[in-house]
């Protein structure tokens, strides 16, 4: 299988003369004295009035200084924190020497979507948490900011990354165009396979388009990545639901020799408490899709969405933060995050929590909704919140929330967005009764190859993991492509 030593995967080996020269050019103690760069960002008062991207990206001189902080460690611990083992010092040292084209190539070698990952990966829990600077009690190298810088700069200078290879004539179908499907498609197309991605929605990108709002991940960035896949020869067919519009048998009859299922986990979960079916209570999937994908709130679109004054978002993950910050931008005066544990246990990215607070979102941590109350028209008018305290760690390793008996408050709200998790999309599994499924309704796959119980049918991303992350979905796409290509060779 894949070798995780970055030097063995080509590009920018550590013993290259230019890397030795860079290391010799400045001693480690001078590098570690440089303060970590700060990401330029839009002012909170301004950004809550629009959907412009909040983080503005590093300036070239900032990127070079930040790259200079990296010590080019002989055993780069940062790489062990990256789920796809990106050659982190290899791309960062290229930034330091001013070769952005090669920095972007190093990234592309492992990551199909570096401009996306540079923006949305939880680096503080992954690569940056393992950077050697943490051991010195100093802020880690800003790996995510540098990844974004390299990918964006290479794209601006229209650097051509990856030539279209000669076709090997073997047709491959992909179900779903989120990060797992896109990364799989890119890998297979680069190997010469004829890849078609089928997408149920009218837009390509999965959660990157319909879930994550533009103030975090502009659509233009996702479209740029999609264009580079088209340049590699990948074809996209939208408005096609695999399992309904086309079955697996249809795909086989059309000559597809391999199928990769990357249909994600877009089925919202609810809490099953009284009042959840009131008007004005909805899932974050519905709320974000209406706004991000269907244009609600933008001039010229007729998708309806309620303009809330007092909104409550239930949950503490990225989806909850995105919904809360979206509600603020849609004009809500008060937006509450209601979360049953404390802020320490929140799964959302730290940066999103900071940005949400800067934008005036109120955090009602250690609170859990127990009921929503209606007005005379059946519309939600208030929520009843149970106060919680933390007990012993549960199976997730986080301290479990325990209700404080009798401590219930009522808070006026006119909209509730429920963001307490998602389940795998059931359509494909429902159409394949012979497919082995887990009790969590995820597709069971072989860990090494990601092949399912049906030969030639592979799966990856959230449909296998339940709700996970962009980088893990992307890593699955890559792994499945390597296994499928080897099986079809
Ligand atoms: P998806 O991105 O869900 O894509 C699946 C695609 O398959 C969709 O386009 C869907 O329409 C399509 N599809 C489904 N069924 C069919 C069918 N039968 N036929 C054809 N097409 C079908 N992760 C991070 O790492 N960082 C973040 O900051 C972050 N923020 C998030 C914010 C939100 C609001 C959400 C919802 C998720 C967030 N995540 C984040 C999680 C991350 O986006 C997902 O883990 C990732 O997108 C999963 O990728 P995927 O390719 O498996 O599925
Ligand atoms: Fe650079 Fe930190 Fe990785 Fe060392 S651990 S190579 S300093 S990013």
| Overall pLDDT level | 94
Radius of gyration in whole Å, from Cα? 23 Å
List the strand order in the largest sheet.
3-2-1-4-15
Helix content: 25-40%
Q: Count of helical segments?
A: 20
The gross shape turns out to be globular
The small molecules bound here are: flavin-adenine dinucleotide, iron/sulfur cluster
Largest sheet: 5 strands, parallel
The tally of beta strands, per DSSP, is: 15
Uncertain ranges: 1-8
Span from first to last CA?
Answer: 16 Å
Structural class: alpha/beta
Strand content: 15-25%
Structure description:
The structure is a single chain. The protein has a five-stranded parallel sheet. It has a five-stranded parallel sheet with strand order 6-13-7-8-9. Strands 10-11-12 form a three-stranded antiparallel sheet, with no helix packed on it. Helix 6 (about 90-95) packs across helix 10, helix 8 runs antiparallel to helix 10 (about 145-155) and helix 15 (about 285-295) crosses helix 16 (about 320-330). The chain has helices at about 15-25, 30, 45, 60-70, 75-80, 90-95, 100-110, 115-120, 125-130, 145-155, 180-190, 205-210, 220-230, 250-255, 285-295, 320-330, 350-360, 425-430, 460-465, 470-489, and strands spanning about 170-175, 195-200, 235, 255-260, 265-270, 280-285, 310-315, 335-340, 360-365, 365-375, 380-395, 400-410, 415-420, 420-425, 455-460. It is α/β, with parallel strands linked by helices and about 500 residues long. It is built from 20 helices and 15 strands. The chain starts with 16 loop residues before the first helix and ends with a helix. A hairpin with a 5-residue loop joins strand 10 and strand 11. The chain binds flavin-adenine dinucleotide and iron/sulfur cluster.
């Amino acid at each position: 299988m894949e070798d995780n030593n970055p030097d063995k995967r080509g590009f920018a080996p550590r013993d290259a003369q230019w890397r030795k020269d860079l290391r010799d050019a400045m001693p480690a103690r001078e590098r570690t004295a440089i303060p970590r760069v700060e990401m330029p960002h839009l002012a909170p008062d301004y950004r809550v009035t629009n959907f412009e991207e909040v983080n503005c990206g590093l300036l070239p001189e900032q990127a070079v200084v930040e790259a200079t902080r990296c010590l080019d460690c002989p055993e780069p611990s940062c790489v062990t924190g990256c789920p796809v083992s990106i050659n982190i010092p290899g791309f960062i040292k290229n930034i330091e020497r001013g070769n952005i084209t090669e920095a972007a190539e190093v990234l592309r070698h492992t990551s199909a979507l570096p401009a996306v990952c540079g923006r949305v990966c939880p680096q503080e829990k992954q690569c940056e948490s393992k950077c050697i600077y943490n051991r010195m009690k100093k802020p880690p190298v800003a790996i995510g900011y540098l990844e974004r810088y390299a990918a964006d700069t290479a794209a601006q200078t229209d650097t051509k990354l990856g030539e279209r290879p000669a076709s090997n004539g073997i047709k491959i179908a992909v179900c779903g165009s989120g990060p797992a499907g896109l990364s799989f498609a890119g890998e297979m197309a680069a190997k010469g396979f004829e890849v078609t991605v089928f997408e149920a929605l009218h837009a390509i990108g999965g959660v990157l388009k319909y879930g994550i709002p533009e103030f975090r991940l502009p659509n233009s960035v996702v479209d740029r990545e999609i264009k580079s896949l088209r340049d590699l020869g990948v074809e996209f067919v939208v408005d096609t639901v695999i399992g309904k519009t086309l079955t697996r048998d249809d795909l086989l009859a059309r000559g597809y020799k391999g199928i990769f299922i990357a249909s994600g986990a877009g089925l919202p979960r609810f809490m099953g408490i009284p009042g959840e079916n009131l008007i004005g209570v909805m899932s974050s999937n519905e709320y974000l899709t209406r706004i991000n994908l269907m244009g609600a709130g933008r001039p010229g679109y007729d998708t309806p969405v309620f303009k809330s004054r007092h909104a409550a978002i239930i949950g503490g993950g990225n989806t909850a933060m995105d919904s809360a910050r979206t509600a603020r931008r849609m004009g809500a005066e008060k937006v509450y995050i209601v979360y049953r544990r404390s802020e320490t246990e929140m799964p959302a990215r730290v940066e999103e929590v900071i940005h949400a607070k800067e934008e005036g979102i109120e955090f009602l941590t250690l609170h859990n909704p127990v009921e929503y109350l209606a007005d005379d028209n059946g519309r939600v008018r208030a929520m009843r919140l149970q106060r919680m305290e933390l007990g012993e760690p549960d199976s997730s390793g986080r301290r479990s929330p325990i209700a404080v008996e009798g401590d219930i408050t009522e808070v006026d709200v006119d909209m509730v967005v429920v963001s307490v998790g998602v389940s795998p999309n059931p359509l494909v599994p429902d159409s394949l009764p012979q497919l082995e499924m887990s009790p969590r309704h995820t597709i069971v796959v072989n860990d090494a190859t990601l092949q399912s119980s049906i030969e030639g049918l592979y799966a990856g991303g959230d449909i296998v993991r339940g709700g996970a992350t962009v980088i893990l979905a992307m890593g699955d796409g890559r792994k499945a492509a390597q296994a499928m290509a080897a099986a079809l060779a």
